[in-house]
Amino acid sequence: MAAALYGTARTRAMQLFTLGLNHQTAPLAIRERVAFHAERLRSALSELTLREPVKEAAILSTCNRTELYCALGEPRAALEWLAGYHRVQPQELTPYVYTHPQGEAVRHAFRVASGLDSMVVGEPQILGQMKEAVRVAESAGTLGTLLNKLFQRSFAVAKEVRSNTGIGANVVSMAAAAVKLAARIFPSLAQQKVLLIGAGEMIELAATHFAAQQPRGMAVANRTLERAEALARRFNAESLELRDLPERLPEFDIVVSCTASSLPIIGKGTMERTVRARRHRPVFMVDLAVPRDIEAEVAMMDDVFLYTIDDLAATVREGVDARQSAVAQAEVIIESQVGSFLHWMKTREMVPLIRQLRESAEEARRREVERAVRMLVRGDDPQAVLEALSHGLTNKLMHAPTEALNQGGQDDESLKALVARLYHLRARD
Prior knowledge:
The protein is α/β, with parallel strands linked by helices. It has helices spanning 28-31, 41-50, 75-85, 90-93, 102-113, 125-140, 145-164, 174-185, 201-211, 225-234, 245-248, 268-277, 313-316, 324-377, 382-407, 412-422; strands spanning 14-22, 56-61, 65-73, 98-101, 193-197, 217-222, 238-241, 254-257, 283-287, 304-308. Strands 7-6-5-8-9-10 form a six-stranded parallel sheet, covered by helices on one side. A four-stranded antiparallel sheet has the order 2-3-1-4. Helix 10 (225-234) links the parallel strand 6 (217-222) and strand 7 (238-241). Helix 7 (145-164) packs across helix 14. The relative contact order is 0.09.
């Protein structure tokens, strides 16, 4: 069940909030509908911040989550924008969406950066993805003082958590889980040929794990051949272009795909021809992309074992128990840092009032100095001028609190306590 979307009614824009959905609240079929493609993030951010009252924004979009981090905005407006941008009805997303205001948003950002909110607890990849989201927001001009401070503090907290706990120990990655599942299908991976589609960080990690099993052959396919060749050279693998996949696919026993394509790369028709060409020898396929690279209908085919990123969840959770003490330690660190950040936010809210107070005092000082100068010019006694200057300043600075105390009212006692606190006064007998 997703967290409450709006909670109690709020009539003014929040100073800070996070709105999103992830692997814990939404199935893959929903997550892929609201995923953002990297090349469109800048324009999306510009569009979001043009909608009042959102002033600052960053978008974190990964295989497991889509989250909007906003300052000075309304969650309802952000949800409507998210739905409209992806041509989805808001009510379709509402059951899966969570919103975190103020302190909850700070805590959530710290937990995400530290790997506590990931499908693979403690995995480091999310930190890099979060840093990339910040870079994109900065280049789009939508990262203001508040969000920049939030993310920089998040990165510092993540570093502290990793330095002082064992949260990163024994992490079972998606790539390692894929190898583990493949071993259940084939007696020996050394007899199989592996095809990796894509050239990003996830595929690079998968290549490392599968190469360690010394398969019979490996190949890397990518839309840009140069990137495929660069990755293939590291693992003594062959490089392919995506357009060659339909012809070459029957050669491979294991297929792992993770690209940024907005449409499936491998469809049911292609796999039907592939299975016939392979004379129904089994094919193990892992789709780590969001949106999916492989059509969901392929999973219904005989002789094809297709796993999505959600299917791998049970396998990667097996190592979680060993890290529970580290998780508890990390939560303590995060909670302490949340309080520190909220204190900074509260102090920041006072800055305009403090500035106004100082400007008022400076104006009073300037006027009294001008009056003193005029008195000196006409020849008044300097001692009398200094006395007049000090009395004038005292009267002007004390006028407002004295008048407030004299007026009294229902809040008389609280006002008296406040003035006593401000001026460090003690009650007299």
